[in-house]
Write a structure and sequence with these properties.
Radius of gyration: 19 Å
Helix content: 40-55%
Number of strands: 3
Number of helices: 2
CATH architecture of one domain: 2-Layer Sandwich
Shape: rod-shaped
Strand order of the largest sheet: 1-2-3
Distance between the termini: 28 Å
Order of helices and strands: HEEEH
Largest sheet: 3 strands, antiparallel
């Protein structure tokens, strides 16, 4: 393979990765806790887009439980976003771990 072909392949891969990152930025996953009492929507570039709290989860005398449910829902969404991102980017990189990309 000559240098021009290699450079063309690198540029193609960069374009595909940029497209994948754009897709991930618009892909939303949902994390839940307490049987859907708390729902957190997050994009696969790790931006929280919404938090929904069911009335049953709101107890003025027990804020700590609600705080814990929010943490669990955010962590659940983060895990799902990471898995989705790893799948999408891994398909492009053939499983290579590229710093800053996964």
């Amino acid at each position: 393979m000559n240098q021009a072909q290699m450079l063309a392949q690198v540029r193609k891969m960069q374009a595909e990765m940029a497209k994948a990152q754009e897709e991930l930025a618009s892909t939303v996953v949902t994390g839940t806790a307490g049987g859907d009492a708390v729902r957190v929507d997050m994009t696969c570039d790790f931006r929280v887009t919404s938090v929904k709290i069911g009335a049953a989860a709101i107890d003025p005398d027990d804020a700590e439980t609600l705080e814990d449910l929010i943490v669990v829902a955010v962590n659940d969404a983060t895990q799902k976003a990471q898995e989705t991102s790893n799948k999408r980017m891994g398909a492009l990189t053939g499983g290579l771990r590229i710093p800053g990309m996964m």
